[in-house]
Design brief:
Length: 712
């Protein structure tokens, strides 16, 4: 441990020396770079001033000549003026051109017959001056005379009316060389010039002049980044890499550059003054050499010592890390084993082919195998019946479940297992994919749900018993009401017959009114019996006759009222002008009883109300189609309807359709009846399903309305 501390101390000293020397050297280099950039910026500003003055002078010369009247009308004196202008600017100008308002060349000096009359309005600078009527400087372009140049044009006016332009052609190489060629900083520093569009006007590298900087320097991302700033007219300092000097390929180096825009007429160019990094470090080369010697000595002696020290340190660190990893793994395995052995559900660790790898004590208890070694000799499917409840072989289905778990990582399903004594029991199984001792395995968590299933069965049995007792209670209430009705009827019969018997014994004339009363009471008993059969759904089919729907509705409501509790209020609203219908009264009454019974069940023990209503309604074809549950052939016309409304729990769409299939309505003979829906074998009558309407009720709220129409 002692040697390690010395090694660390030695490395720290070396590092500190390196950092200090690096800081000193970097500060010296930064000062040299700042001085260099200040010098380059001064040169760039002087060049900028010269080029801007050059174009101000030429623009002024053109403006003065363009204002002459002879130049406007362009007579012989105008041509002489162009000749004079050309001679005055012959050191920099290669041609003078007069262009008319339509963009055609009128005259050139030197005279070029092939150029006269040519349309140059498509050139961007000509289009611009024709639009703006202001002086314009072109980009680099190929003139009609055949050489690459930049053109400077000023507008020619006559009384404020644009009459064309007067321009000069300048070889851009001569301009750049005149102001940039002599710029030298050290041995390899130079300047180059680009237009607003990135065309190189001047560059000492052969082949660059007249081409886009983005094409020339496409392999130098740092130059491209600087060029993007330049074409935006920005000023700044930067560094870029290069591997060519004046056409000669050299090793890749770094240059420090200063760039700024030059405003010329209506556009701007950008000048770059750049110097290699070698010129910068020349001033601090001696300091750098000494620094490198010192640093080299430290490396020669320090590296071996650092290497062996670091190697020893790394070995010790790796040994410590390995020990910590082993301890952590051991603790993790102990925690897993504790959880595995104490988990309440049966746990199995299985290979991907469902071979047993490990089981916990809960699994041994579940299947009744106390010996783990004996358990491990079994196959997974030995703990299952040959077939699962769905008929699938257990072996095949087990492999399918394992494939799903391996693919998804997790799979939950129900399974039927079998203990060693042959007892089968249902379980929930959760298969999980996991890594166990470096291998991909499956862990199965099995939970016996026999008690849960038994509890569910007991709950269902209890619900059936409660429902049965409720039905018995309802029948008891109904039987009590019927017994009271029969007792009243029998009292009348018994009293009338006893009085008649006394009169016969005493030799008195028999009073027929008592016998008639007993006979009427017996008829009422027969009607009540028929109503009871109708309520039970076992009425005998009788011949249809004119039926008073209001009377049937009132009777059904009164019959059902005996089994209704105090929590339900019943109301009847019958239409006074309701026509009779030709039907079986018992069947109509059965429909009413069913509707009212459904309403009572929907209300249950809650407080509510049931309203029964009848009436007459005119139904057109559109209304019949819109409300029909099934396809109907009933023709539009006048219908009698009966309606039962309650404030119960409501009816969903599916139950509503099934309920309506039991509600039948009769069409009156002689009113244009047509067969539709279900037809009964009675002369002159048809029964059909008609749509129920449930406004404001159904699934979205309490209450329901059942409405049926009969052709009137």
């Amino acid at each position: 441990m002692k040697y390690r501390y010395w090694l660390v101390l030695f490395l720290c000293v070396i590092l500190l020396c390196a950092v200090l020397f690096g800081l000193f050297y970097n500060e010296a280099k930064k000062d040299a770079i700042r001085n260099l950039n200040d010098q380059q910026l001064l040169i760039a500003r002087q060049t900028k001033k010269g080029i801007e003055e050059f174009f101000r002078f030429h623009t002024g010369m053109l403006v003065r000549n363009a204002a002459q009247g002879h130049m406007v009308i362009f007579d012989s004196e105008g041509r002489m003026s162009m000749q004079t202008l050309y001679k005055a600017l012959s050191d920099t100008v290669v041609a003078v051109t007069r262009v008319d308002a339509a963009g055609r060349i009128v005259h050139t000096v030197p005279y070029n017959r092939r150029s006269i009359g040519q349309d140059i309005s498509r050139q961007s600078h000509i289009r611009e001056i024709m639009t703006t009527h202001k002086p314009v400087l072109s980009d680099v372009f190929t003139a009609v005379q055949g050489f690459r140049a930049v053109a400077l044009h000023v507008p020619v006016f006559e009384g404020g009316v644009f009459r064309g332009s007067l321009g000069v052609l300048i070889r851009f190489e001569s301009i750049a060389r005149g102001y940039l060629e002599d710029i030298r900083i050290g041995g390899d520093g130079y300047a180059w010039l680009v237009t607003k569009e990135g065309i190189e006007l001047y560059c000492p590298v052969p082949g660059h002049i007249g081409r886009s900087v983005f094409e020339n320097c496409k392999d130098f991302p740092s130059i491209i980044a600087m060029a993007r700033e330049m074409i935006k007219g920005r000023q700044g300092t930067t560094t870029y890499e290069y591997n060519m000097i004046r056409g000669k390929t050299v090793m890749t180096g770094v240059k420090h550059a200063v760039y700024l825009p030059i405003n010329v007429v209506n556009t701007y160019w950008s000048i770059v003054v750049a110097t290699p990094d070698g010129e910068v470090v020349g001033a601090v080369a001696r300091f750098r050499t000494r620094l490198l010697i010192i640093f080299g000595i430290l490396i020669v002696f320090g590296v071996p010592s650092s290497y062996f020290g670091a190697r020893a340190w790394r070995i010790l660190a790796e040994e410590k890390k390995r020990k910590e990893a082993e301890d952590s793994l051991r603790e993790s395995e102990e925690r897993y084993r504790t959880l595995f052995d104490t988990f309440g559900d049966a746990l199995f660790v299985l290979s991907t082919d469902l071979t047993l790898i490990d089981v916990n004590p809960a699994a041994m208890r579940m299947f009744g195998i106390p010996d783990k070694e004996e358990f491990m000799k079994l196959k997974v499917t030995d703990g299952s019946p040959e077939y699962q409840p769905d008929g699938s072989p257990s072996v095949v289905k087990a492999m399918e479940m394992a494939d799903v778990a391996l693919r998804k990582g997790l799979h939950f399903f129900e399974w039927t297992h079998r203990r060693t004594d042959g007892t089968e029991f249902p379980t929930h199984v959760l298969l999980s994919r996991m890594t166990y001792r470096g291998k991909e395995v499956l862990q199965a968590s099995v939970r016996d749900i026999s008690a849960q299933r038994a509890a569910e069965k007991d709950r269902l049995e209890m619900e059936k018993k409660i429902l049965h007792s409720q039905k018995l209670e309802s029948l008891g209430v109904l039987a009590g009401g019927l017994a009271h009705e029969f007792n009243n009827i029998l009292t009348v019969i018994q009293a009338g017959l006893e009085i008649a018997q006394m009169e016969v014994k005493n030799g008195l004339p028999v009073t027929t009114s008592y016998i008639d009363g007993a006979l009427d009471a017996s008829k009422k008993a027969a009607d009540l019996t028929a109503k009871m059969l109708a309520y039970a759904g076992k009425s005998v089919i009788s011949v249809k006759k004119k039926v008073d729907v209001n009377g049937v509705m009132q009777t059904g409501l009164a019959l059902c009222a005996t089994s209704a509790g105090d929590n339900v209020e019943m109301r009847f609203d019958g239409a006074s002008d309701l026509p009779g219908i030709n039907a079986d009264a018992n069947q109509i009454q059965q429909v009413v009883i069913n509707l009212i019974t459904n309403s009572l069940e929907a209300i249950g023990s809650n407080k509510g109300s049931i309203a029964v209503r009848t009436g007459v309604e005119d139904c057109d074809e559109e209304r019949l189609k819109a409300n029909a549950v099934e396809e109907s052939q009933c023709v539009p016309g006048r219908f009698v309807f009966l309606e039962v409304t309650d404030t119960g729990c409501g009816i969903d769409e599916a139950a509503r359709k099934l309920l309506f299939r039991a509600l039948l309505h009769h069409e009156i003979p002689g009113q244009g009846s047509r067969p539709a829906g279900h037809t009964r074998d009675s002369p002159g009558s048809q029964w059909r399903h008609l749509p129920g309407q449930c406004p404001e009720q159904g699934n979205d709220g309490p209450g329901s309305v059942s409405s049926r129409g009969v052709r009137s």
